Recover the amino acids of this structure.
């Protein structure tokens, strides 16, 4: 799509290491969590699109564009950058292969591991929308086995492109928020509230659900085969469900997939938690995580979380939340979820998983600039003046890590491609 020109060079990003007066000091302790960071898929586009914000440190010092990524990683003791990838997006969406590969290379240059989130769609995939990529549908129509074959080949070629491009690949997320299915309409499930999921006995109570689960399992197994056949085979495979606050929904989605053999091959179960969209409490998240590591014998991570630092008047249910909508509330939200992750599955027990990470959703978005900000930037880790908020530092503080370090991007194992890399034309044709 010709978007790579919007990037700062990897060398320019790496040059930020020399800006010692702005960057926090090195770590003096190590966290028990290996995947701590943020989904900053839009940061390169923001920095290269005019007008762009000038990000600032906690004390208000202005950051040069080339310093911004390094500052965020260091101040939060972030080990991991999550990046989303669409198959063949429109010109309005920057998350194509060329853009995302360059973003991943910048993250690697800055010392972070990369969590690659494959949406298996030309646009956003979430519980309400899981569109088959147009080129796949044109060649396969609704044939599940044909679509699975396309997904498998795409996964292998894509992961190869990132490894060959020199990316430090920590994990690959195979699908995004798939509790209602994948590749609609072939793998579409009924949307259930948390209460109904518990009352009805789950998704299998509905007509057509067994066939939908068969399709979803076929797609997940194809993704796993594609990953394991790639040069990034050792990267952690993540299965992502959005409702980290609802054990009934999680069991409703994962149970039938597990029975079909589609969960066993994953290394990690990932979840989202946004109080605006998920009505469970902190206690509900803690309960769900504690049960899941026993049920499925897998490590867990909150791979997409967010909470507003301002704008309570826009949140109809905020009076019921465990945190106030304020800078202090956002900071406490971070600390509480880190506590949940560090407590989950500990002390360790044989055959039980553990909590391994937390990823913030779009901390870089600030309202009023060229790139539109989700929720007017109220969920950012920077305020409306682009100054870093206390919640950013809380990631480091709550883990007992001095800003500037963490458990390391490869604490859980990762794949590092050759420096410089080489082109992989196969991936550029969906």
């Amino acid at each position: 799509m010709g978007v790579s020109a919007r990037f700062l060079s990897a060398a320019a990003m790496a040059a930020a290491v020399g800006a010692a007066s702005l960057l926090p000091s090195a770590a003096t302790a190590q966290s028990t969590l290996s995947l701590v960071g943020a989904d900053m898929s839009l940061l390169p586009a923001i920095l290269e699109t005019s007008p762009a914000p000038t990000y600032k440190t906690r004390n208000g010092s202005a950051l040069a564009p080339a310093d911004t990524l390094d500052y965020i990683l260091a101040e939060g003791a972030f080990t991991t950058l999550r990046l989303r990838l669409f198959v063949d997006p429109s010109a309005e969406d920057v998350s194509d292969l060329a853009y995302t590969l360059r973003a991943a290379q910048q993250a690697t240059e800055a010392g972070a591991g990369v969590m690659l989130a494959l949406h298996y769609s030309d646009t956003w995939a979430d519980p309400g929308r899981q569109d088959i990529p147009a080129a796949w549908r044109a060649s396969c129509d609704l044939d599940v086995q044909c679509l699975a074959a396309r997904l498998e080949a795409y996964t292998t070629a894509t992961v190869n492109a990132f490894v060959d491009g020199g990316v430090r690949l920590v994990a690959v997320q195979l699908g995004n928020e798939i509790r209602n299915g994948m590749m609609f309409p072939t793998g579409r499930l009924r949307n259930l509230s948390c209460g109904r999921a518990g009352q009805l006995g789950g998704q299998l109570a509905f007509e057509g659900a067994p066939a939908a689960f068969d399709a979803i399992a076929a797609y997940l197994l194809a993704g796993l085969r594609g990953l394991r056949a790639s040069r990034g085979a050792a990267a952690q495979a993540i299965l992502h469900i959005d409702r980290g606050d609802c054990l009934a929904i999680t069991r409703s989605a994962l149970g039938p997939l597990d029975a079909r053999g589609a969960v066993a091959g994953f290394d990690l179960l990932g979840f989202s938690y946004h109080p605006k969209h998920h009505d469970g409490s902190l206690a509900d998240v803690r309960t769900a995580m504690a049960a899941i590591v026993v049920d499925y014998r897998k490590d867990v991570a909150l791979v997409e979380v967010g909470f507003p630092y301002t704008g309570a008047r826009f949140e109809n249910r905020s009076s019921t939340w465990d945190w106030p909508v304020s800078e202090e509330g956002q900071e406490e939200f971070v600390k509480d979820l880190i506590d949940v992750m560090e407590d989950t599955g500990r002390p360790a027990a044989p055959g039980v998983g553990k909590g391994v990470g937390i990823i913030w959703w779009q901390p870089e978005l600030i309202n009023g600039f060229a790139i539109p900000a989700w929720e007017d930037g109220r969920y950012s880790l920077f305020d409306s003046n682009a100054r870093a908020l206390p919640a950013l530092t809380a990631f480091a503080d709550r883990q007992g890590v001095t800003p500037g370090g963490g458990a390391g991007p490869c604490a859980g194992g990762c794949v590092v491609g050759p420096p410089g890399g080489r082109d992989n034309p196969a991936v550029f044709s969906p």
Observations:
- Residues 1-29, 419-430 have pLDDT under 50 and may be disordered.
